[in-house]
Amino acid sequence: MSIDITIAESTDIVKENMNDNVIYFQNVDCRISGKDILRGITLNVRRGEIMGLLGKNGAGKTTLLSLISGLRSHTSGEINVLGEKMPTHTAEFRRRMGFVLQDNALYEELTIFENLKFSASLYDVQNSRKRILEVLEILGLSDRRDQVVNTLSGGLKRRTAIARAFLHDPELFIIDEPTLGVDVDTRHALWAYLRLLRSKDKTVIVATNYLDEALALCDRVAVLGEGALLEVAEPRELVRRTGSCIDIECDQQTAKKIASEVLNLQQVTRTDLTLSGISLFLDKGTNPDKVLSEFAKYGSIDGFCFRAPDLSEVFKSLGNRHP
Amino acid sequence: MRKNLRALLGGMNAELNRMRRSRLLIAIVVVQSVTFLILVTLFGMTGAYAPTALVNYDNGPLAQQFIHSLENDHRSFALIFMNNETAAKQLVEQGVIVAMIVIPQGFSQSISEGKTVPVTVFIDNINTDMTDDIQRAMPAAVMSFGDALKFEGVNVSVAETDSYTHDTSFIDYMIASALVLDALIIAGTLSALSVAEEFESKTARLLAISPVHPLIPMMGRVVVTALVSAGALAITVIVALVSYGISPVQPLEMVLTLLFCVAIFSCLGAALGAVMKRTLPVALFVLGSALPLFLFSGSYEPQRFDGNLIWVAAHFSPEYYAVGLMENSVFNLKVTPEPLGLLALALVGWGIGALALAWFFSRRGFS
Out of A23, A158, A181, B217, which could bridge A45 as a Cys pair, Cβ 3.0 to 4.6 Å? Predict the structure, then answer.
């Protein structure tokens, strides 16, 4: 999949491909209680893709999801979701969307089956019993269908919340922190399930703090920082474009010397002092050998390795570039 | 329409399942309402039959006659016969009994000779209410004693004409009105908890993005809490009527009044739940406001006895109208100046108003 969006040139491309877009944001601001939560967001999400929203807590991910679902209204700009101009509250629009909230929002004193049955009554799901059993089977909850929710583990609650959102077979599936507080096995099972949705041409929006999740799951990620869209790209492309990284093993004194000297170098975008020395993040196109030889004179270097930065480091770099 | 009906039934079904697993909560609410019944009857009991020591140093017939007057002609005393004045005084000081009455030696002889005899009364005046009761009761007993013996100068004649053909005991009177209080506690608490929980557990947000209006499933839930409340109140009513031996004069009117109360308090509870959005504070608020509302609504006696201002203020509470109807249906009493039809109409008006309040605040809660 190619990268077709950057912040600077996004508007035209978004307009060109509007027919394929399930979600389309143009220059959207959202102000809540006098505070700018989202600023100038321009973004599109295509049918059948998994789009990740990546950002620290408070970056605006959940607010952005609330705007898509219609739970909140934007202050300015234009939002179009599933062909409807937002905000919209039509029943038909809501039936086409499934939303998993960050905190599950399950009825704790009801069983898994009863929770789904209630949801089926809200969404007027036909043959609800058959459909519920089908969804429970897919999510591996069949054996626990009569278990009361307040006796379930965090992972099973998460699965139940996802099952409920999927029950009415929505076109657009919004999920806030899909694997928050779940064990590794459940995490992989949920990823597999989300990929299954994509294979059925469903569109999935995932807000996550977990960087490996974005790498493993998402076709593209939109990186948010302090309410602004920092970057939209394929996760791996984002890593590649951010540049390479050198981990240098050295004593703390040498590491501090390198950290202070590096300020003079344009090619180094960021440094991280680590327990074993220092990590240097290099601008794309920089020759790492050259940089390394530059720092050898500041002290004894015990070892080094070149590697691609992970998404966490990418995010930090973006944050540094766009404070 | 069909979709809305399905959502309504879905809400009802979900609430029914929730209630099935909350039997302990329902039991506690019922126990609590019975506790309130006991509480209000205690208010009535403390003003009567105060435990009082009687130390009698005279064995004459007139002393016996005086004791009879103390015991039977007024409801203030529960006499405990003691021989030792010092021990009786100690019991008063310890707060075990309220007062001590001493009949001196030579009481009968002095009375028969037409002399004035001082009768010592030692009172624990820690509570002036009780002190006042005893101060009022003593002269009444003396008057009754003198009248019975046809003493010169004591001429008591009461020409009583009653408003009603029957007497109603104070405690029974309070039980009838306390059932309205119970309706508030049971229905108000259960519906407030149900709605507040929707916001507390964030499920309200899911309802807000569902294809049906969120108030429809919510209404289903409140209907079920009202039905469960009606059942729980029925248990309380049976306990109260059987325990106090009360037989309602017009049972159908009583049942309808209580059902209306359940509907009104369920709606008001729902409105409170939507405003407060937290289960613990809303439950405490319902309990905390129940007793003052009850006391301001003519629950102890016809409200106009307490002054015009309170009486006027009481009209703003549904309990005022409900208590008026309850006293009529249970004892055939008319405790408000308004006719019964108007009371019933006011209660219906309150029902509609409470529904509108529940709708307004729940809707605002979802926005």
Answer: A23
